[in-house]
Every structure is written in C-alpha cells, then in structure tokens.
Amino acid sequence: MKSVRLNINGKPQELDVDLRRSLLDVLRETLNLTGTKKGCNQGACGACTILVNGKRIVSCLALAAMHDGAEITTIEGLERDGELHPLQTAFIEHDALQCGYCTPGQIISGVACIAEGHAKSLEEIKFWMSGNICRCAAYPGIVAAVAQVAKEI
After folding, report:
1. Pick the CATH number of 86-152 from 3.40.50.300, 1.10.150.120, 3.40.50.1820, 3.40.50.1100
2. pLDDT tens digits, residue range 72-124?
3. What is the dihedral of CA 1, 5, 42, 136, to 10 degrees?
4. Cα(54)–Cα(13) distance, rounded to whole angstroms?
C-alpha cells in the first residue's frame, strides 16, 4: 500500500492504494467516479481516457501509485456550476453518441485534442482522435462536434 495525494476534478483526495491498482480502478471502484469506462483494459480502445496534469492518458494502463500529486480530470469534472462543457453540448447537438459507452473517453480526448492544437482540420481531428474507438460508428458526429468547439474557442 502507498499513500497518494490526487486532485480529482478540483477536489483533493488522499488515498491508500495497492501498488498494482490502476487509476481507472481507483476512480471507478474506490471513488465511485463511474463515468470513466473500462473497455478493453489493455489501452487499445480509449474508453478510459482521462486528463492527468492536462495530458490525455488511458487510465487502465496507469498505476495510481505513480501519480502522487497529479491533477486528474474525468468526465465528471468537465461541467462547471451545472453547465455542460461546450464539447458535451456539441456531442448532443451533433448526435455524436449512440450507445454512449465510449462517449466519456471520446469527450475527454476531444477536449485534449483541441487544447493540444490538433483540431485545425477534419483530417487532423480524425488522426488525433484515432486512439478512441466507437463501436457504434458515431465518428462523423464526434468529428463534427470537436471541429465546432475548436472553432468556437
């Protein structure tokens, strides 16, 4: 066990974690932040994408014990004062979700894609979002939503 301090969605947390536990499992099972989804648990689908210190990562491959002091943002942390993040709103407007399972990871990845400056064209968005898989094939809506918000920011 190791004591770690994490700032999750703006809230400080101090936890004792098993050295083998992933950030994904700590978020979902210890902190009950179930918006981040467990898809493949191998880092291949992007369903578990979160932001750590402003960078997107797949949380299923990240050990919680190695992120002491990290700033973590999950899908639950995007809204502000009851208002959805602009990308969350754009996903609704562009029907960028069907079953919704991949949606949290897609939105977090889209927020990062825009922040990283990788949303200047549809082709660029497709390339930089390619690590996030949507089994329902809502890609046209996802790309359109990211492109819209990138233009607005």
Report:
1. 1.10.150.120
2. 999 999 999 999 999 999 999 999 999 999 999 999 999 999 999 999 999 99
3. 140
4. 18
